[in-house]
Amino acid sequence: MEQLKQQIEQYKQEIAAFVAAGAEEVEQFRIKWLGTKGLVKAIMGEMKQVPNDQKKAFGQYLNEFKTLAETKLEALQASHSTVKDSASPSVDFSLPGDPMAVGSRHPLTLVRNEMVAIFKRLGFAVAEGPEIEDDWHNFGAMNLPEDHPARDMQDTFYIRKPEDGNGPTWLLRTHTSSVQARVMEQQKPPIRVICPGRVYRNETISARAHCFFHQVEGLYIDENVSFADLKQTLYFFVQEMFGKDVKVRFRPSYFPFTEPSAEMDISCLICEGKGCNICKHTGWVEILGSGMVHPKVLDNFGIDSNKYTGFAFGMGVERITQLKYQVNDLRLYSQNDVRFLKQFTGVV
Ligand code: PHE
Fold it and tell me: For the chain: N or C, fewer Cβ within 10 A?
C-alpha cells in the first residue's frame, strides 16, 4: 500500500509538471495516462489488492488522482487543440453574417460613362489632358487672344500670371476645349474625339454654380463635315440619353472658337413642357454649346481650313445628371453625403 501511494504521488508530480508543445504531445499525454492501456487504468486495477476495510478511502484517493489527470488533459486540450476551439460555444458558425455595405458609383461618373459610351458607338475616341493648363491651349489657340472680351465669359483661376507678360501663364482649365487644342496639335484629320474632364471657374458656390464641374466636349474634323452632321450627332446623343420622345431646338449663339455657333435645348423632361422650375417655365432646357470649328482655330494647328471643316460641342455632365436624376443642387455632388450617394447603389 505504501509503495502504491508513493508511486501515485510521483505520478501526480509528473502530471502537474507536464507541458505540451503542441496538439501531438497532448495526444501522447492522453494515451499515456488516460488511454485504455494508460497508467490511470493500471493504477485503478490495483484496487483489487486493497483490503476491504480500506477500499472506500483508497477508492476516493484513486478517484482524485484520475480527476487530476483528466483536468490536466482538458487544460492541455484547451490551449492546444484547434478542433476544440472551433467547437466551443462562443463561436457559432451557423449565425448569419454581418451585411457588407455595398458601395456605388458617383452619379457624375455614371452619367459621364454613359455619355462616353454613346459617343463611342458613333466612332468617337476619348482624349484626356491636364487640368493645369497654359494660356495658349485654354484660350489663345481657341481664338481667344489676351484682350478678347469673351475671356470674361469664363472666370479663370490663375496659378501663375506674370504682370509684365514675361514667362508662361498657368491656369486651371476653364473648359476641356484645351484638350481639343492638344489633340489638333498632335493629330492630323480625320479627328473624332470626345474630351471628358473636370474644369474650373472662379464662381461663387451656390445651388446653381460651382467652382468646378465636369464637361464632355467633342470635336470632329474631316472633309465635308457640315452643320447637318453636327445636328444629327447631337440629336442621336440626346435620344440615346433621354429616350426617343425628346425634342431638340438650336438657337444661334456665340463662341470665339466656332462660327456659326449654336446652343442646343431639349424639351424639359421634368414637366414634359408644361413648365417648371428647371426649365424656368419655358418647356426647354439648354444643355450644350456647339458650332462649326472656326477656320482660325484650324489654321492655328496647321490644318488646312480650305480642305477641312469640323464641328465641336461642349456640355456639362452636372446638367445632364440633373435632368436624368432630378438633382437640383450642384453642391450635392461634392458634399459626399452618403444619404445622397447611396441612392445610386446598383446603377451601372
Ligand atoms: N467650351 C465651351 C464652354 O465651355 C463649350 C463649347 C465647346 C462651345 C465647343 C462650342 C463648341 O462653354
Answer: C
